[in-house]
């Protein structure tokens, strides 16, 4: 991971989103962490990486989405069920705060997507309804709200 990893990058669907657009996150019924990544029509998620905020150490990395919902931006961190390749398995607990970087595929080309900050302390005591996700700003959003942040070309 380069020093630029902490900077949000907007490529792929050429967005005019908030800086940066919010990623959503919530606990799965099993206690895992589900991420809702905003995507434009015609763009798919091809992989994801979780890295520490202090030294950019990769904590988990996977690629090749299995089910359609993963390609559409909904995936569980640390789960090998969502991706074909788990290049760096998650070992241990996730830290309280970390970055998620997503890789996108559009028009047959793979490219870096956006990075998003995850603050697990925001989930402490949060009451999320079915289909709702927390954001790094503390705002609760639905998946449709998350995707609507993007202005897709």
Summary, kept brief:
The chain has 153 residues and is mainly beta.
Q: How does this model look, in words?
A:
With 153 residues, this protein is mainly beta. It is built from 2 helices and 10 strands. It has a 5-stranded antiparallel β-sheet. Strands 1-2-5 form a 3-stranded antiparallel β-sheet.
Element order, helices and strands?
EEEEHEEEEEEH
Terminal residue distance: 29 Å
Structural class: mainly beta
Overall mean pLDDT stands at 85
Reported for the largest beta sheet, the result is: 5 strands, antiparallel
Strand content is: 35-45%
Number of strands: 10
> Fraction of residues in helices?
under 10%
Number of helices: 2
Shape: globular
Low-confidence stretches: 1-18
Q: Taking strands numbered 1, 2, ... along the chain, how are they ordered across the largest sheet?
A: 6-4-3-7-8
Radius of gyration: 14 Å
Characteristics:
single chain; 153 residues; mainly beta; five-stranded antiparallel sheet; disordered N terminus
Task: Summarize the helices and strands and which ones pair or pack.
Blueprint: E1 24-27, E2 33-36, E3 43-52, E4 58-65, H1 68-71, E5 74-77, E6 83-88, E7 97-106, E8 109-119, E9 132-134, E10 140-142, H2 143-148
Antiparallel strand pairs: 1-2, 2-5, 3-4, 3-7, 4-6, 7-8, 9-10
């Amino acid at each position: 991971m380069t020093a630029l990893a902490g900077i949000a990058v907007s490529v792929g669907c050429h967005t005019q989103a908030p800086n940066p657009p919010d990623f959503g996150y919530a606990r799965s019924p099993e206690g895992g962490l589900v991420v809702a990544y905003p995507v434009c029509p015609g763009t798919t998620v091809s992989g994801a990486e979780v890295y520490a905020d202090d030294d950019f150490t990769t904590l988990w990395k996977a690629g090749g989405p299995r089910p359609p919902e993963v390609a559409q931006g909904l995936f569980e961190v640390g789960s090998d069920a969502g991706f074909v390749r788990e290049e760096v398995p998650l070992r241990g607990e996730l830290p309280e705060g970390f970055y998620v970087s997503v890789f996108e595929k559009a028009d047959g080309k793979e490219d870096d997507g956006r990075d998003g900050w995850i603050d697990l302390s925001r989930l402490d005591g949060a009451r999320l309804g079915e289909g709702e996700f927390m954001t790094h700003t503390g705002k609760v959003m639905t998946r449709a709200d998350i995707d609507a942040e993007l202005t897709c070309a």
